[in-house]
């Protein structure tokens, strides 16, 4: 028996299906089902019974889930206690982030927080995308995560700011200003490589708008993106607050504006004191 199995059982009880529980925990459904079956064999009882397309707890399952909740709460309390040395705040703050949002942490929030709490060790947990950011806080590798919102309901979310996405275009490109969203249909764009975290985020934005641009360049060499725009290869979608050194290029807003919300997220359990401090600090700066 292990904590992972107990978390899987509790999540299945909460969500009513193993598929929904696996999605909420960002694990493969066969792996979750296999872990629960192994626990049932070890305990010698059946925890769930079929009910339509879902599952319900058996009498034994209800008892086990009650014990599992108590055990997980106790583990969370111990982890919180152990993070706080006597007479002071915990010594380490771990914040997960994608490479796209990491500048938000390393250029502003974390340095300012470090000046207020110089004894705190700060570690950034780098992740590939929104799903891996969520996994980092779920499996305990990070206390908090900076990510685009919304996130699955098993995570507590604290919005910090809205960020505007603008169009950076070569000089001479004839577009109305502000740019109608329909102008993105068929527009040649410099885009991150397929499969990258930034490309996944961008594809999600474009899908929400309902437009399909033409990838002129697909590359993760962020330092070259503006050079390709200057060369007239295509335009670039980027965050206004991260736009710099765009002399000679046109920076245009959209109508209606394209915005995303970023925030700090964490699992729904007590945070270590230093993580609570950082969360309050970040909110005060938003």
Automatic annotation (TrEMBL):
Q: What residue stretches are annotated with the HTH lysR-type domain?
A: 1-58
Q: Does the keyword Transcription apply?
A: yes
Q: Which domain of life is it from?
A: Bacteria
Recorded GO CC terms? protein-DNA complex
Q: Which CDD domains match?
A: PBP2_LTTR_substrate (cd05466)
Q: Which UniProt keywords apply?
A: DNA-binding, Transcription, Transcription regulation
| Membrane-spanning ranges | none
**Gene Ontology MF: a single term:** DNA-binding transcription factor activity
What Pfam families does its record include?
Answer: HTH_1, LysR_substrate
- Key word Transcription regulation present: yes
InterPro entries to which the protein is assigned, alphabetical: LysR_HTH_N, LysR_subst-bd, WH-like_DNA-bd_sf, WH_DNA-bd_sf
Concerning its family, UniProt says:
Belongs to the LysR transcriptional regulatory family.
Its name, as the record gives it, is DNA-binding transcriptional LysR family regulator
């Amino acid at each position: 028996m292990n904590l992972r199995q107990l978390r899987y059982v509790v999540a299945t009880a909460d969500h009513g299906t193993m598929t929904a529980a696996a999605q909420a925990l960002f694990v493969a459904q066969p792996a979750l089902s296999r872990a629960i079956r192994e626990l049932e064999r070890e305990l010698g009882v059946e925890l769930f019974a079929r009910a339509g397309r879902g599952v319900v707890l058996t009498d034994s399952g209800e008892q086990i889930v009650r014990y599992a909740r108590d055990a997980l709460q106790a583990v969370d309390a111990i982890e919180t206690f152990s993070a706080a040395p006597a007479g002071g705040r915990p010594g380490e703050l771990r914040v997960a982030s994608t490479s796209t949002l990491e500048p938000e942490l390393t250029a502003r929030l974390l340095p300012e927080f470090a000046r207020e709490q110089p004894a705190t060790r700060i570690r950034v947990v780098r992740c590939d995308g929104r799903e891996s950011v969520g996994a980092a806080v779920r499996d305990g590798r990070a206390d908090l995560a900076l990510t685009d919102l919304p996130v699955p309901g098993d995570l507590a979310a604290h919005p910090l700011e809205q960020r505007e996405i603008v169009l950076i275009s070569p000089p001479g490109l004839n577009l109305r200003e502000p740019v109608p969203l329909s102008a993105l249909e068929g527009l040649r764009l410099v885009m991150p490589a397929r499969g990258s975290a930034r490309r996944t985020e961008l594809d999600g934005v474009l899908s929400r708008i309902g437009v399909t641009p033409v990838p002129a360049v697909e590359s993760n060499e962020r330092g070259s993106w503006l050079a390709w725009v200057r060369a007239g290869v295509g335009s670039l979608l980027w965050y206004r607050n991260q736009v710099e050194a765009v002399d000679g290029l046109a920076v245009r807003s959209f109508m209606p504006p394209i915005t995303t919300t970023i925030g700090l997220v964490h699992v729904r359990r007590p945070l270590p004191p230093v993580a609570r401090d950082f969360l309050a600090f970040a909110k005060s700066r938003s």
